[in-house]
Amino acid sequence: MSYHFDLHCHSFFSADGVSSPEALIAAARRKGLHGFAMTDHNTCEAVDYMISKGLMRADGQPVDGFLVIPGVEVTTDEGHLLCLGAVLPNNLKGRPAREVCDRIHEAGGLAVPPHPYDIFRAGIRRAVLDTLPIDALEVFNAATTLDRYNKKAFKYAQERGLPMTSSSDAHHEAAVGAAYTILDTADFTVKGVLQQIVRPNQLNQTYLKARDKFRKTWNNWLRLKKKRPKVGV
User: Fold this and answer.
1) What is the DSSP letter of 95?
2) 223 CB-near residues (< 8 Å, 6+ apart)
3) Helix (H) or strand (E) holding 214
4) Residue 189 — left, alpha, or beta (φ > 0 → left; ψ -120 to 50 → alpha)?
């Protein structure tokens, strides 16, 4: 069966995120997604929160027909790196990308560089990519600064024979599912999805609307002044 997954999403547990995990799930369901990856910046707090609220399960099974993939977007010394399918400690920011790759694999996750080549959004450059044991590459990011960065990522993945993903990089519920990866698997669990990500998959590629790109940029400007949301009350 084919499942639609947005493999790069942020909640308000990210400094520049806006929406609650509950709002992200509701929006994803409305748009026909079967799941998404929770990849907040440098923290897995949202994963702990969602498990405590019964929105996802620690054993990797779906909840009410919807599957949340645990993950995190680590700001390595050389750029951003997604961990899909595992939880990492919150102290990896600024560490070398190769070290973070190794930590991801030790935890049982997949290492997937997001928006590579995007010099305005801490994309990992080719000189570093060539040295990393990555599992797949995000070749379409709906929020990329310039279209040519996605094209360069696609070309690099082709040259290296890497599996490809397409994601929204949503920081607001309205952007979830703008782009997604279509996974054909008979195992609708975190384990099954991870096994399919590293195989050839179809990609749905649609850029964010102008208002959503503006909202993301505005959130980046304000993130240093943003107060932490109150949760669990």
Assistant:
1) S
2) 15, 16
3) helix 210-222
4) beta
Q: Specify the CATH architecture of the domain 2-225.
A: Alpha-Beta Barrel (3.20)
Helices 21-30 and 45-52 cross at an angle (nearest 10°) of 80
Both tokens assigned to 228? 């932490």
Alpha-carbon distance 57 to 61, whole Å? 6
80 close to 123: Cβ distance less than 8 angstroms: yes
The neighbour count for residue 186, using CB atoms within 10 Å, is: 7
Residue type for 146, please? Answer: L
CA–CA dist 221, 113 (Å, integer)? 23
Compute φ and ψ for 87, nearest 5 degrees: -110, 135
156 sits in the region (left: phi over 0; alpha: psi -120 to 50; else beta) called alpha
Side-chain half-sphere of 107: how many Cα atoms within 13 Å? 19
E strand map for 77-233: 79-84, 110-112, 137-141, 164-167, 180-184, 202-204
What's the per-residue H, E or C state across 70-91?
EEEEEEECCEEEEEECCCCCCC
Per-residue pLDDT tens over the stretch 56-85: 999 999 999 999 999 999 999 999 999 999
In sequence order, what are the beta bridge partners of 204? 180
- Please report, rounded to a whole number, the percentage of residues in the chain having pLDDT higher than 70: 90
